Amino acid sequence: MIFTSISPYYESNLHKFFKYKLSIVEFLKKVYRNEKITLNITVFGLDNLLYHSINYEKLSKKVRSLLQDVANFFFSELSI
C-alpha cells in the first residue's frame, strides 16, 4: 500500500509539535527567494509533488539542490 499524503491522525496533531505548517511549494518558494524561514515549521506535500510531476527526475534534482541550500542555512542559524 502506498500513501501519498499525511495520515489524518498525524495531520490533526501537527499543531502540537510545530507552530507553522507550509506546503512544499510555499517552502521552496521561500527558499528560492531567500526569505526568512522560521525553524518551527512542518513541510508537507513533497510526495504528491513528485508523484504528479511530469519529469520527476529533473524536479527531484532541483528540489534536492534547494533543500541542500536551506539545510546549510538552518545549520548556520542553529550554530550561532
How would you characterize this protein structure?
This protein has 80 residues and is mostly helical. The chain has one domain (8-79). Helix content is 61%, strand content 10%. The chain is built from five helices and two strands. It has helices spanning 8-12, 14-17, 24-32, 46-52, 56-79; strands at 20-23, 41-44. Strands 1-2 form a two-stranded parallel ribbon. α3 (24-32) links the parallel β1 and β2 (41-44). The model is unreliable at 1-5 (pLDDT under 50).
Question: Secondary structure elements and their pairing?
Answer:
Elements: H1 8-12, H2 14-17, E1 20-23, H3 24-32, E2 41-44, H4 46-52, H5 56-79
Helix content: 55-70%
Could you tell me the radius of gyration in angstroms?
14 Å
User: How many β strands by DSSP?
Assistant: 2
Roughly what is the average pLDDT, rounded to an integer?
78
Largest β sheet strand count, sense and barrel closure:
2 strands, parallel
Shape: globular
The helix/strand order is HHEHEHH
Number of helices: 5
- Amount of beta strand: 5-15%
What's the short story on this structure?
The chain has 80 residues and is mostly helical. The chain is 61% helix and 10% strand. The protein has one domain.
